[in-house]
Amino acid sequence: MSIDLILLICYNTVNIDYIINTLSHTNHLATGQLRKRTHSMTQKQQYVTAKEAAQMLGISAATLYAYVSRGFIRSEAAAGERRTRRYWRDDVEALRQRQEMRRNPTQAAATALHFGAPVLESGITLIENGRFYYRGHDVLALARSRTFEEVAALIWRGAFATEGLFPTALPLPFPPMLPKLPPIESFQAALAMASAQDWGTYDLSATAVSQTGARIMTLLTAVATGHTSPQPIAATLQQAWTPQQPETIALFNAALILCADHELNVSAFTARCVASAASTPYGVVLAGLAALQGAKHGGHTERAAALFQEAATAADAAAAVLSRLRRGEGIPGFGHKLYPDGDPRARLLLQMVETIAPDAPDLALAQGVATAVLQTIGAHPTIDFGLVTLARVLHLPAQAALTLFALGRVVGWIGHALEQYQLDQIIRPRARYVGAPPAAQ
Questions:
Q1: How many angstroms separate the Cα of 165 from the Cα of each of 169, 239, 283?
Q2: Of 1.10.580.10, 3.30.310.80, 3.40.50.1370, 3.90.180.10, which CATH number belongs to 120-427?
């Protein structure tokens, strides 16, 4: 029996101690073979056979083929088998959920709030086939070719026109010296003070909301850097954080664009709920920040940073990863439900970081952690891991990864608020009561 097969069997039986003791002694060939086996396992999870798809949907093979021909389910030739096709599990599952919604609307509604069927319409972000798009534009291309301000205009106005949108100076008095607070709390304190002085925020017309959003972005950039600047936001961050490295402007710009929106995540949904009540854009952003700082959302960056610390002090990256698995803990910064083949945001960020600092020790550490995670659980880095890698390689201030995440995501929250203001409909779902019945009168 080959060494890599032994490792795989041991992992599947949760014998993590054995893997820790063995990984350091396996040769490069065994590592490569294990990576191929892990990739094969991931592929099996992503696709289903015709028989499995038909069983999941409760239909005949002929009906399955009809769904494929109508574009409801994607299929492709199975590897190494010319006449056998495999079917995308996500498409089959989405169709199954739609069927369940028709049969049992109550149950469908209960599951919709956790990666379930869409619950509202939005024209901002499309996530499809491992890529994502802002108003029809591939975001990876935008991150390399457009400024953050242009992408904000695209999300808010539907075009790249920035004329008259972003102020060249802070239009409101800069907040007095804030106490030494973490970034999110500093943003919240500054917003609370500024909102009381910005009377324009009560105008909820599309043009006014976009302008308020730009003022908020300018304010939060000043809070993050400690000074105001007429420069674009990415350049302002570079001047404050990496003044001797002008090449990092492109990296900061890309990070902000990649973080700008991601469909209906928890902070975007929170922002829409607040906007549906006709709260001001300041209230929308304050609510979004409250959601973003949670440990299961943007606050996940702190957990990813902790993994870096563990890997830096361990014998090697694999030992740190497997030690977590042995304790029954997850691996923060890896595995995104919407991207089974890897988060494209993280992939691009890590590529750009490597271009700027190919020999950075923290980049090597990040690559070691990513390799160890892929070999053990087959998971790929997420945007959280990418942001933390960027921050460590560039030696940015504490919690800079979360700061970048928040600055970028403000654009999306304002975009969702604009949609909700235009809809002019309060979000008020009903709850299914499961408590004690009313007492008899």
A1: 12, 22, 20
A2: 1.10.580.10
